[in-house]
């Protein structure tokens, strides 16, 4: 049906004109769309720094790197950590195999000594971090990677890529599920994100309270509930709307959701109930003034006797649109673009900073950038969240000081040295430690990965969010929900 | 050094408290971080629509789907298409293998008939589209997928994911390289995007004129130039800055770029030239008032005799920051966050719409959503760009009408029926057809894939951008650079 040489089609790039700037030969068969090793998902400078450090001997200095963010996106009251499980899943695949090493060699990125090191690389250090799903604030030490410089520096880009994207999505998603109160929110944004990012976004959304996702790969990888209705193309494929609806109901049963806004919504609802009967599962509205339409459609469904048929709304929803529909008879929200792009904050500003390293005598010393801008606090931290007598969080405590004292610090010590030692403590204690072990001596704790890890994280998020102060979940701009307090040990 | 049971570390989630909502068993070994099949990077509804259409016989109707966007991001004057080559690279991997089919079966997504169809699925249709790197406007028919409903509908999510993300990045990147005029711009944003999105972003950036990327996987996959300097952690790893600089120069040579803002910039520049000599390749500034600092550092470098040492600036640059540094003695820009997040527009609003399908007698009929909102024009389109006598684009012509006439339409026909037939035509003709064949009967044209495809696309983008009207490259908000004109054939 298509003639590739028809005149309305432009010639291919090398069939005419100069090809002087193009290679002489066509490429060999392209690489697979994805590759098993994640080791090259890395900035070049990590490998060249490694080369220099291997040459001068500092590569083997013991180091602690910390991930944190200096600020929340403008007006946001809290962030939600997501991606930790994906970091742990990726870690065993951070290996330099023949293909990776051959590339590094032929492109001259690093020298032979470094290639030898990379050939044997595996992470043997220890990683602590906030639990996935945890709430965070500026300065929260979200991940702590401890090992030699050589093994820890290589993870910088991969760790940040995962945590920055996944947490941006989870942070937006948590506002959406807050706004929806008890109505389910479904993730449908894959098409508005990089194809692999869509999978991560679905996972992060579920951690922050979404009920399911349209993304099948996410369903497969993480045992998530997958959901879906139908597209306008399905209706348009058929001779008319009744034929399309009859086909969908015949194939998927009356419990399916029918998309009723291809032609005329009122007619669409009529056709839908005619096709499925009053047991129709749902109708989807994907355009128009959803608040007004939902009222009209609810009334029409009720009049037709389809009182249990749910109304699913989609169409560029974000947390504000969800909140504005609170009084409308909407049963389910489907969210796409705003979810996968972090609703205005498509990445977190997390950084991966060296905070302590051994000196020439092997003693761990705090280090920090010291010029005027982007200062940060040197030294390893631990963190805890303080709760008031009503069980709600009141502050984030970030503890720094001499490394041995920080490592040994316990919330009980702090409680005993509390600024208000006679304050009543609620039954769950007034300080909750926030760092958990994720990788110990290179061994990944499998409770954080796969579908199990997602359920863990979702449960953790529900609980941590419920403990925020009243008002922390408002959508309006404001300061962080609780202040971060630095506690410096002597 | 770390005691996982120390008191400042929280217990793992199942070591205390209720685990009632968690599965009984820990997960088996996690899936690899990425998988070879891309077939599940798909919204569930595509498979359930397929199931219904297979059952009613419409799955085999011949269809044309088109990708287009209804509008550009607010104030943008043009978009840049990127991702086409990645779509073509992914296509051979869109296969349902045993793992994918077993998942679909056990999760009950589709019935046995559909599983059988999916087992044999490969795309055998034809895809035309704008050349990768092409400029586009609202309504431009960017990709046209033709085949049976069954084979074309399955590609919706994957195609949109790739084009929406990659084009968002390329559209932002083109503004950045415009703002930089002839200074090189380097891509350093991997850490602020999903780890696989970072690879795609690097590729899209190079298409839009970036010189190189820090991302090694992108270098590997697409033969891109990789670049890098050093991180603050490298300086902090060493006992002092002179030791760090000496190590980097010893390992990487004096042509390396040294990061001079860890402690004090003036001292850093001194130390840098002391370590590398006046042949030092570059210094990088990553914080502070870059315009002021660049002037001071340039003067200092010149006084020290390092007249050829380049100044590389990074630190949350976007196109506006780049433009504001036009008068500063900056040699190279490094861009991260703003690039990979589309500089305020992290996704394009591209949609994948059924525009024509065969009726029961096999005749192709135009179709379109007809309700009040999100209307679109039915029927297959072709497109061409009209040029004025000065060789600059004046309008985007989108041709629709009876399918046989649209397919047969040629720019020459239109030129002869031109509204100003006596206008002087420049030597390259006044209408340039915009659709090129990408896949013909399932066979991918390999000139669009791999590193070769990226070079093609980058060259195409340079040329297409150079032909825009004067003013089209301004950064200020405005209308699309040229209007889109619909030409409807009888």
From TrEMBL, chains A, B:
<keyword id="KW-0597">Phosphoprotein</keyword>
<protein>
    <recommendedName>
        <fullName>Nicotinate phosphoribosyltransferase</fullName>
        <ecNumber>6.3.4.21</ecNumber>
    </recommendedName>
</protein>
<dbReference type="InterPro" id="IPR040727">
    <property type="entry name" value="NAPRTase_N"/>
</dbReference>
<dbReference type="InterPro" id="IPR036068">
    <property type="entry name" value="Nicotinate_pribotase-like_C"/>
</dbReference>
<dbReference type="Pfam" id="PF17767">
    <property type="entry name" value="NAPRTase_N"/>
</dbReference>
<feature type="domain" description="Nicotinate phosphoribosyltransferase N-terminal">
    <location>
        <begin position="40"/>
        <end position="164"/>
    </location>
</feature>
<dbReference type="InterPro" id="IPR006405">
    <property type="entry name" value="Nic_PRibTrfase_pncB"/>
</dbReference>
<dbReference type="InterPro" id="IPR007229">
    <property type="entry name" value="Nic_PRibTrfase-Fam"/>
</dbReference>
<keyword id="KW-0436">Ligase</keyword>
<feature type="region of interest" description="Disordered">
    <location>
        <begin position="467"/>
        <end position="490"/>
    </location>
</feature>
<feature type="region of interest" description="Disordered">
    <location>
        <begin position="1"/>
        <end position="24"/>
    </location>
</feature>
<comment type="function">
    <text>Catalyzes the first step in the biosynthesis of NAD from nicotinic acid, the ATP-dependent synthesis of beta-nicotinate D-ribonucleotide from nicotinate and 5-phospho-D-ribose 1-phosphate.</text>
</comment>
<comment type="similarity">
    <text>Belongs to the NAPRTase family.</text>
</comment>
<keyword id="KW-0328">Glycosyltransferase</keyword>
<dbReference type="GO" id="GO:0016757">
    <property type="term" value="F:glycosyltransferase activity"/>
</dbReference>
<comment type="pathway">
    <text>Cofactor biosynthesis; NAD(+) biosynthesis; nicotinate D-ribonucleotide from nicotinate: step 1/1.</text>
</comment>
<keyword id="KW-0808">Transferase</keyword>
<keyword id="KW-0662">Pyridine nucleotide biosynthesis</keyword>
<dbReference type="InterPro" id="IPR013785">
    <property type="entry name" value="Aldolase_TIM"/>
</dbReference>
């Amino acid at each position: 049906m298509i003639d590739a040489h028809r005149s309305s089609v432009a010639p291919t790039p090398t069939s005419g004109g100069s090809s002087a700037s193009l290679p002489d030969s066509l490429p060999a068969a392209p690489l697979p769309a994805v590759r098993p090793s994640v080791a090259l998902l890395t900035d070049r400078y990590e490998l060249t720094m490694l080369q220099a450090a291997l040459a001068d001997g500092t590569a083997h200095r013991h180091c602690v790197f910390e991930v944190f963010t200096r600020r929340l996106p403008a007006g946001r009251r809290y962030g939600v950590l997501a991606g930790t499980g994906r970091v742990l899943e990726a870690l065993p695949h951070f290996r330099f195999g023949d293909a990776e090493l051959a590339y590094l060699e032929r492109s001259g990125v690093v020298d032979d000594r470094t290639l030898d090191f990379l050939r044997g690389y595996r992470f043997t250090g220890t990683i602590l971090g906030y639990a996935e799903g945890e709430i965070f604030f500026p300065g929260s030490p979200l991940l702590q990677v401890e090992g030699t410089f050589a093994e820890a520096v290589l993870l910088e880009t991969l760790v940040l890529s995962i945590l920055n994207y996944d947490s941006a999505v989870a942070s937006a998603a948590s506002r959406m599920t807050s706004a929806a109160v008890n109505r389910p929110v479904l993730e449908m944004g894959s098409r508005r994100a990089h194809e692999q990012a869509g999978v991560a976004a679905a996972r992060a959304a579920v951690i922050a309270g979404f009920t399911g996702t349209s993304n099948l790969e996410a369903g497969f990888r993480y045992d998530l509930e997958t959901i879906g209705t139908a597209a306008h193309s399905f209706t348009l494929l058929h001779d008319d709307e009744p034929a399309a609806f009859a086909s969908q109901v015949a194939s998927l049963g009356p419990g399916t959701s029918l998309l009723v806004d291809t032609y005329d919504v009122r007619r669409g609802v009529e056709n839908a109930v005619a096709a499925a009967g009053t047991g129709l599962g749902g109708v989807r509205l994907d355009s128009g003034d959803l608040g007004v339409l939902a009222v009209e459609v609810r009334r029409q469904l009720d009049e037709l006797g389809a009182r249990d048929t749910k109304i699913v709304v989609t169409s560029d929803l974000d947390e504000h649109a969800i909140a504005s529909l609170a009084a409308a008879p909407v049963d389910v929200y489907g969210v796409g673009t705003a979810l996968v792009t972090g609703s205005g904050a498509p990445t977190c500003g997390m950084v991966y900073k060296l905070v302590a390293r051994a000196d020439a005598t092997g003693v761990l010393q705090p280090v920090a950038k010291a010029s005027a801008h982007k200062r940060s606090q040197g030294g390893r931290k631990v963190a805890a969240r303080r709760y008031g007598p009503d069980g709600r969080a009141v502050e984030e405590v970030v503890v720094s000081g001499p490394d041995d004292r920080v490592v040994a610090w316990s919330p009980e010590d702090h409680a005993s040295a509390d600024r208000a030692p006679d304050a009543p403590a609620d039954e769950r204690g007034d300080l909750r430690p926030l760092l958990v072990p994720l990788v110990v001596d290179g061994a990944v704790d499998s409770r954080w990965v796969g579908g199990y890890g997602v359920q863990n994280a979702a449960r953790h998020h529900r609980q941590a969010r419920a403990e925020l102060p009243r008002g922390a979940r408002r959508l309006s701009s404001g300061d962080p929900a609780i202040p971060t307090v630095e506690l410096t040990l002597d």
